[in-house]
Amino acid sequence: MVFHATLQGERYRFDDLRTLLARASPLRSGDELIGVAAADPVERVAAREALANVPLRHFLNEAVIPFEQCDVTRLVVERHDAAAFAPVAHMTVGQWRDWLLGYEADTAALGALARGLTPEMVSAVSKLMRNQDLIAVARKVRVVTAFRNTQGLTGRLGSRLQPNHPTDDARGIAAALLDGLLLGAGDAVLGINPATDSIETGMMLVRMLDDVRLRYDIPTQSCVLTHITNSLAMIERGAPVDLVFQSIAGTQRANEGFGVSLALLDEAHHAARSLRRGSVGENVMYFETGQGAAISADAHFGVDQQTLEVRAYAVAREYAPLLVNTVVGFIGPEYLYDGKQIIRAGLEDHFCGKLMGLPMGCDVCYTNHAEADQDDSDDLMMLLAAAGVNFLIAVPGGDDVMLNYQSLSYHDILTLRSIYGVAPAPEFEHWLDRMALLDGARRLSANPPRALPGFLNDARE
Amino acid sequence: MIEGRGTGLTADPWATLRGLTHARIGLGRTGDALAGREVRALQAAHAAARRAVHATLDPARLALGEPFIEVKSRAPDRGVFVRRPDLGRRLRAQDATRLPHAPCDVVFVIADGLSALAAARQAPGVLEAVRVALPEWTIGPVIVAHNARVALGDEIGALIGARCVVMMIGERPGLSAADSLSLYLTWGPRIGRMDSERNCLSNIHAHGGMNHDEAAFRLAGLLRGARALGRSGVALKDDSMSARLPPATP
């Protein structure tokens, strides 16, 4: 369908919904790279005007990627819940934006809506929202998940402890793990990105993490972020796999680039659940996403990168994940050029993920070839904490020595706890108490390594 | 309140643990925040990494001791290269016509990627060791590529007629290593290969990463595995592909 808008005496034409969404999207380098961005700022605002007038129902009739060519489109169509959609079915995108910010759109109303929404509707409305709108609405959404602790509760902020090492050295990883635990991080997951794809190494790491968890009776979950086929192989060999990880994207072709299919995700979900390792819940999947993934795999179909990102969330929610995070600044400046673009994308991804019903976290990060620095990360972590993000990723000193990028530090998580008055998951907070890692004012003490005795002595080599 | 290293008479309790990893563990703290010296140390490392991103690869400094062919991608400079990965994946026209058709088992490409420093420091040593490890393989002419992304190897390998291409490419610089190299192996190189059809060894550098001999040993193993299987990628296990997003490839 063709869309039109007249702005400042000029008439603009947008040939289809895909084009309209792309032109309305805030400026970012990835959309410029594939030539779908608005030609100038006026066209961008004209596209937003046209988009505001599109009925939400229209999104059920026009796919941005043909049904026949993409299993993600088919998934969205087949799983759409008309009853959940009913409360907003009569609205245009513009009316829906105003409704979302209204007082009647409370936590219960937004939670009930999730299954009635398609990724393209959610992407569309985000393009009509300022950063503060993305924060204000996301803050009203609660998505609670559980495995060995409960993530996403009000007043809580989870953290992933990411103790990566460039050669997967067990003692090096253990040292970084200890550092993070003593600084009170790791309730969302103790999660290692292995440098090698070897199944033997993966088995060694997953056992080491499980040994540490059992020895100190830590109410958290572990994950080795290896390819899903490796996790399946590790499960078959009897490894203590808590969470199965996979990077996913918003088109079938991009997922093929990752070496995954919906059937494979289904198989891994069932395999991990069959282990019954959770104590307070059964959410066993962990997904990472990021704007630009589908473009990088040359699997974008001319769709803007933010809409593609939200389509990945439609995949994620099929598998009731414990954790989902956008790795927002990881992919590089060809998709998000600078701090401004990274911050906006982080807020969009969090908002869109939450609205879609996901337990959304974020890796607040940047690479050394992006025009960004630690000040930009400070800004984004503060904004996400204000938006009620489920969890954030943290690494020693903010410097990941394996993946070669900067994330947050464990100290940054402490800063957020103080400024926003948030705490880790209740089960994990109780553990910090039990291990006497907090001071009288419930702040992290200056815990020396011996505060968790025997940590390195017994770490599996 | 300042704790951690350098606080006076008591020994630093993190000293031993710090020897186990280059990760920034046991840092000085004040309140919730990092000590000022840690903040400045990170800023200094970031500044060095920013400089490495914009460096250029000088073939004379590779000291290859053998003839090589120098090629450029379609990205004319570092600024365009960073923003336009598509241009870094294709040879500029004059270089595409200049490459010889010289069928061989494997061709090695020394590529700047996001750190020319890494290519200069690591690639020659790895190449020398891998030649020794693969005596029975026919090896094509060494290619030195500027403003190159991983997929540039697909076009190079296809033009030369190699059964396999190995891109020896500078990773994007990290704070502890601005000179870390990755090796990407692609069996049956041709334009349009997907990232899932490659295998990778990463983190080859001298600051606690993989050394040249180990990288060569593991690469030789992967090459033999790929030849036996007739393909590379997720089907070929025991590789070193990071589980993170493929866009991490330079």
TrEMBL record, chain A:
Family (UniProt): Belongs to the EutB family.
This enzyme's EC code(s): 4.3.1.7
Keywords: Bacterial microcompartment, Cobalamin, Cobalt, Lyase
One GO molecular-function entry: cobalamin binding
Presence of the UniProt keyword Lyase in the record: yes
Protein name: Ethanolamine ammonia-lyase large subunit
Cofactor binding note from Swiss-Prot or TrEMBL: Binds between the large and small subunits.
Catalytic activity as recorded in UniProt: ethanolamine = acetaldehyde + NH4(+)
Gene name linked to the record: eutB
One of the protein's GO biological processes: amino acid metabolic process
Compartments (UniProt record): Bacterial microcompartment
Gene Ontology CC: one annotated term: ethanolamine degradation polyhedral organelle
Enzyme class: lyase
Entry annotated with the keyword DNA-binding: no
Protein role: Catalyzes the deamination of various vicinal amino-alcohols to oxo compounds. Allows this organism to utilize ethanolamine as the sole source of nitrogen and carbon in the presence of vitamin B12.
Cofactor(s) demanded: adenosylcob(III)alamin
Positions with a binding annotation for substrate: R160, L161, Q162, N193, E288, D363
Binding-site residues, adenosylcob(III)alamin: P194, Q246, S296, M402
Pfam families linked: EutB
Pathway note: Amine and polyamine degradation; ethanolamine degradation
Subunit-level organization: The basic unit is a heterodimer which dimerizes to form tetramers. The heterotetramers trimerize; 6 large subunits form a core ring with 6 small subunits projecting outwards.
Family matches, as PANTHER family: ETHANOLAMINE AMMONIA-LYASE HEAVY CHAIN, ETHANOLAMINE AMMONIA-LYASE LARGE SUBUNIT
Automatic annotation (TrEMBL), chain B:
Keyword Lyase among UniProt keywords: yes
Keyword terms: Bacterial microcompartment, Cobalamin, Cobalt, Lyase
Binding positions (adenosylcob(III)alamin): V150, E171, C200
Catalytic activity: ethanolamine = acetaldehyde + NH4(+)
GO biological process: amino acid metabolic process; ethanolamine catabolic process
EC number: 4.3.1.7
Cofactor(s) annotated in UniProt: adenosylcob(III)alamin
Annotated Gene Ontology cellular component terms: ethanolamine ammonia-lyase complex; ethanolamine degradation polyhedral organelle
Pathway: Amine and polyamine degradation; ethanolamine degradation
One Pfam family matching this protein: EutC
Physiological role: Catalyzes the deamination of various vicinal amino-alcohols to oxo compounds. Allows this organism to utilize ethanolamine as the sole source of nitrogen and carbon in the presence of external vitamin B12.
Protein name as it appears in the record: Ethanolamine ammonia-lyase small subunit
Species of the source: Gluconacetobacter dulcium
GN (gene name): eutC
